[in-house]
Design goal:
The chain has 462 residues and is of the alpha/beta class. It has 20 helices and 14 strands. The chain has three domains: 2-119 and 225-264, Periplasmic binding protein-like II (D-Maltodextrin-Binding Protein, domain 2), CATH 3.40.190; 126-220, D-Maltodextrin-Binding Protein, domain 2; 269-453, Orthogonal Bundle (Lysozyme), CATH 1.10.530. Helices cover 51% and strands 12% of the residues. A five-stranded mixed β-sheet has the order 8-7-9-6-10, with helices on both faces. It has a three-stranded parallel β-sheet with strand order 2-1-3, with helices on both faces. Strand 1, helix 4 (62-74) and strand 2 form a beta-alpha-beta unit.
Length: 462
């Protein structure tokens, strides 16, 4: 028997033997101790807009932020193991190549024999999406006999297979696709007519392309969570349970979910698509200057480009009815303070705008950390530092946190309420416009990051 075991190549060993090895390792050393001893939390993840984007300036994604904070709580670093599919994420956990999978995974009853899930961090719905030339059905029954694409190994695939075995089930053909990106690209290019995806993915797809239409909610709500191996002991899982209890109770989880989803919910579809078209045409002459300005003032150049688009649609000769000039729409008194003598010069205008944002970051509450510090500075760029200070004071009076953009955002619209602004130092302001201003910039910024990442992924598959 010993000879038979040792003649298997590692990648060919039976699953039963792998499971024995994994379980035995946790009997010798609990999983939490293994993580702390190595000083690294190994996380399997996928490259997706709201999951993980390995950006060179600063990685993005809800799973990135959550696992980063979890690792900080444990006192270790994070090693992100990027996998190509949901199936690969689970396999990495089962083979003990990672400690957990944080890949936008839905809690899947079909997986619970081999995996255990953390407490959910987000509840979403399943959406039926389809090509623009297909009618929008009210439910699955209206597309009986059709083919529905799903990411291979996903909880949506398991759910469709399960309800397909029920009496009087709707006859559907399930088409497995490698991942969500391949599904969205398939719909865009007419190769997929119907697909099932999660609501946050459907929302972003619709913002990116008018070739993707969002249909009805199908099935029960879906909870997203981390996946751990059942072969492991509960030591690391218990820490995750405690972590999610803490970030839920102190509102950190709410703030992180807001950071990655709120801006897309507010962004108008036609504006997002116009932005992407203009990115290919109008932006090119100014990208180098945005990069230089970003390096000089420590601001992501894509955020500066997003500000420029929100301000002028990248038109260097733009003039507002309030007397703001140029690509970054700087008013003359501010231009004088910044030493900007020729606002119509796009290079100097961009540099001045970046300098002004950097100055405003120094005027917001010292407790504010990134990215909230920059979001508050952007609000001041639009409404003025005086009105922002009024909003910060109002936020504090109402028992919320003036260092958090999400809390200040809720109070800014009140600056146009006479019952409120008469009791504030700087009076009336169109705070709702400022909220839309910042949220649009946030969305444009994230769209730029995702589009570049998406194009790289697509190029690597050709």
């Amino acid at each position: 028997m010993g000879w038979w075991i040792h003649t298997w190549a590692p990648q060919d060993r039976p699953d039963r033997l792998v499971a024995i090895d994994v379980a035995d390792s946790f009997k010798r050393t609990p999983q939490l101790a293994q993580v702390t001893d190595r000083g690294v939390l190994r996380v399997a993840t996928l490259i997706e807009p709201t999951v993980y984007i390995p950006d060179s300036y600063r990685p993005q994604g809800l799973e990135y932020d959550l696992t980063g904070r979890f690792a900080e709580r444990l006192g270790v670093k994070v090693d992100y193991v990027v996998v190509e599919s949901i199936e690969a994420a689970y396999k990495a956990v089962a083979d003990n190549r990672v400690d957990l999978a944080a890949a936008g995974l839905a809690i899947d009853p079909a997986r619970e024999e081999r995996f255990v899930f953390s407490p959910p961090y987000l509840t979403v719905s399943r959406k039926l999406i389809h090509a623009v030339d297909r009618p929008t059905p009210e439910d699955l029954a209206e597309i009986a006999g059709e083919t529905v694409a799903v990411p291979a190994g996903s909880a949506s695939q398991s759910w469709l297979e399960r309800i397909g075995r029920e009496p009087n089930a709707v006859p559907l053909t399930i088409e497995e696709r490698p991942d969500k990106l391949s599904i969205l690209e398939g719909i865009r290019h007419g190769k997929i007519e119907y697909a099932l995806t999660l609501s946050h993915t459907a929302l972003l797809a619709h913002k990116l392309s008018d070739d993707v239409v969002i249909g009805p909610i199908v099935g029960p709500p879906v909870s997203l969570a981390w996946a751990f191996s059942r072969q492991a002991d509960d030591s690391l899982l218990d820490e995750a349970r405690q972590f999610f209890s803490e970030v839920r109770s102190d509102q950190r989880l709410r703030a992180l979910v807001d950071r990655h989803y709120a801006q897309f919910e507010r962004l108008d579809e036609s504006l997002s698509r116009r932005f992407l078209r203009d990115l290919e045409t109008r932006a090119r002459p100014y990208l180098r200057t945005f990069r230089r300005a970003g390096e000089r003032y420590g601001i992501d150049w894509r955020l500066l480009a997003a500000v420029g688009y929100q301000e002028s649609k990248w038109r260097p000769n733009a003039v507002s009815h309030q007397g703001a000039y140029g690509l970054m729409q700087i008013v003359l008194p501010t231009a004088r303070d910044l030493g900007l003598t020729n606002p119509s010069n796009p290079t100097k205008n961009i540099m001045a705008g970046a300098k002004y944002i950097d100055q405003l970051r120094d005027l917001v509450p010292v407790e504010a950390t990134e990215p909230d510090r920059t979001y508050l500075a952007l609000a001041a760029y639009n409404v003025g530092i005086g009105h922002l200070n009024d909003a910060l004071e109002l936020t504090k009076r109402q028992g919320a946190d003036p260092s958090q953009w999400a809390d200040v955002r809720e109070r800014l619209p009140q600056l146009s309420d006479p019952a409120v602004y008469r009791d504030l130092r700087y009076g009336y302001a169109r705070g709702s416009e400022t909220v839309n201003y910042v949220e649009n910039i946030r969305a444009f910024h994230d769209l730029m990051i995702w589009v570049a990442t998406r194009d790289q992924l697509l190029s690597s598959r050709r």
